[in-house]
């Protein structure tokens, strides 16, 4: 082929890749927390007795799930300033990730909530629990256990989606890789290494989620 592989140029820039990885994990964690908040609040609103509130949640979910993430982040970063709302790349990335992940989280959590029998909810009210306590203790926690695998898989996907945030100059792993590649012209070595790093990050996250599952949801259901 006439191409000589040289990973030395990549290893020399390892600190940049490390900082980029930390940036990726920071964006992912913040995006996950925001997505989970949107998901829980969205499910609560989805069960509202007010038709307009339910319609707004359904519309939000449909719009976000049926448009590309790249378009969403461009809209927040480039279109909102025309309305006087200016956000820096990091904040924009977190909001876009949270909104995107939140739309999927609403549907995932809703599926878990609807799996809870009405008898359990009625028993909670019979015990004198407040509506908020019934939702938190009797509905939400068992529902989270039921949908935990799907929700965590979505969060891992959200972590990989952070790579798109390089399009607005948010600092994360892919943006660091692009700078290194433009300086060294070692495309194969750079992106091979970055692929391996993303694989490690995803594996560590799945291990972390499995550990949380064993500690938080390891209780009998009957």
TrEMBL record:
Its main location: membrane. Keywords: Cell membrane, Membrane, Transmembrane, Transmembrane helix, Transport. It is found in: Cell inner membrane; Cell membrane. The chain crosses the membrane at residues 20-44, 56-79, 146-170, 190-212. One of its GO terms (molecular function) is transmembrane transporter activity. One of its GO terms (biological process) is amino acid transport. It comes from the Bacteria. Pfam families: BPD_transp_1 (PF00528). PROSITE patterns: ABC_TM1. One of its GO terms (cellular component) is ATP-binding cassette (ABC) transporter complex. Residues 21-209 form the ABC transmembrane type-1 domain. It is a multi-pass membrane protein. Belongs to the binding-protein-dependent transport system permease family. HisMQ subfamily. This is Amino acid ABC transporter permease. It comes from Rhizobium sophoriradicis. The lineage of its organism: Bacteria, Pseudomonadati, Pseudomonadota, Alphaproteobacteria, Hyphomicrobiales.
């Amino acid at each position: 082929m006439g191409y000589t592989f040289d990973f030395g140029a990549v290893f020399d820039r390892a600190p940049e890749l490390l900082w980029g990885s930390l940036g990726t994990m920071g964006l992912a964690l913040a995006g996950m927390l925001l997505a989970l908040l949107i998901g829980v609040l969205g499910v609560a609103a989805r069960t509202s007795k007010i038709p307009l509130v339910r319609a707004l949640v359904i519309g939000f979910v449909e719009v976000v799930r049926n448009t590309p993430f790249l378009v969403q982040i461009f809209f927040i970063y480039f279109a909102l300033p025309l309305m006087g709302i200016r956000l820096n790349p990091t904040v924009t990335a977190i909001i876009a990730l949270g909104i995107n992940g939140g739309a999927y989280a609403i549907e995932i959590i809703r599926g878990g909530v609807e799996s809870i029998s009405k008898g359990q909810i009625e028993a909670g009210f019979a015990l004198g629990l407040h509506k908020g306590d019934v939702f938190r203790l009797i509905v939400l926690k068992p529902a989270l256990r039921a949908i935990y695998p799907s929700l965590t898989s979505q969060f891992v996907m959200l972590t990989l989606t952070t790579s798109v945030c390089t399009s607005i100059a948010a600092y994360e792993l892919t943006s660091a890789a692009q700078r290194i590649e433009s300086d060294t012209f070692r495309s194969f070595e750079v992106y091979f290494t970055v692929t391996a790093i993303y694989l490690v990050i995803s594996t560590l996250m799945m291990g972390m989620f499995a550990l949380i599952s064993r500690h938080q949801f390891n209780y009998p259901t009957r």
